[in-house]
Write the structure tokens for this entry.
Amino acid sequence: MERISALLQTFRDIAANPGKQLYKYKGEGKKAIGVFPYYAPEELVYAADMVPFGVWGRLGTINKAKEYFASFYCTIAQMNLEMGLTGALDGLSGVIVTTMCDTLRPLSQNFRLAVPQIPFLFLAHPQNRRPEYGIKFTMAQYGKIKKQLEEIAGSPITDEKLQNAIKVYNKSRAARRKFVKLAGQHPDVISAVDRGIVLKSGYYLLKCQYTKLLDELNGELEKLPVPQWKGIKVLTSGIIVDNDALLKIFDENKIAIVADDVAHESRSFDVDAPEDETDPMRALALHFAAQDNDPLLYDPEIVKRPAHVVKKAKDAGANGAVVFAMTFCDPEELEYPSLKKAFEEAGIPHIILGYDQQMADFGQARTSLQAFAESL
């Protein structure tokens, strides 16, 4: 237990101060590239011997970004621009900005205009990602990003380096999937707050370093007997749940998160890239083509994702589900009725809570979660 406590403290220190971690890398002579959500090929950055650095907004108040966005925009997009405008991202040698939804598209153009001091790498994914023409389009987009990264790094990204990066990232994804399962089995040791912190810190570390720490934590957790949990078990769903004060309410009410369908968490590492593909650029395109069960991804089988979420909850032994609805996220709002229907038909109780990164008062969420826990 002593080693687990020490490892958790390491993850807490990293998650609490990403700026410190960024400048630590810069002090080592490394360049860092900001990676905006979602599905940007971090492997290209890693293969360029630079640090992929996750940029998923931050908690706080939006001020300057309001000049560029209407009030009804997702706070992750607004916070990312706010950080650019206030200089919080100036330590980055570039940013990769994707365009997966109607909010990220204007963010990309606003960021390009408002933050000219940071090199801008624009990435457009195809919605028809699985047909051969979609794979070729993805490869062309990734090829453009590759050239820009080579210019920033001052050295080429070789096939050998990229193939190694794919292996490093697959190993990391496997370690995170294992951690999610173990954390669900040991909620007495890994609180909801610490679970979120461990996953969040992975955005601020080189994946080889992060995986080494996580493998050690997983090994320590595997040594422990599985306890008889006296609280309830839930699946969480949404884009991001990065507020310790909110997650602390789960811990106070003995609500264990045993699985998640969160973009910032499990959706980002559910799928591996193929390692047997001779062309590593095609392997990255196939990795994106294999992504699925996300409201931002085109799905001709519209009822498929809710069934996937229900299966995740059942497989993890969840008693219920908590849906975090990002304020002003149209894709999630449009999908919720089908998700609600799937939970009801499966007999899985659930609640939906509004969330954004400016929230500081969780009184209503506390009442809802307490009542939900008591009902189960």
Q: What stands out?
A: Residues 25-157 form a domain with the Rossmann fold fold (CATH 3.40.50.11890). The beta strands are 32-35, 51-54, 94-98, 120-123, 232-238, 255-262, 320-326, 350-355.
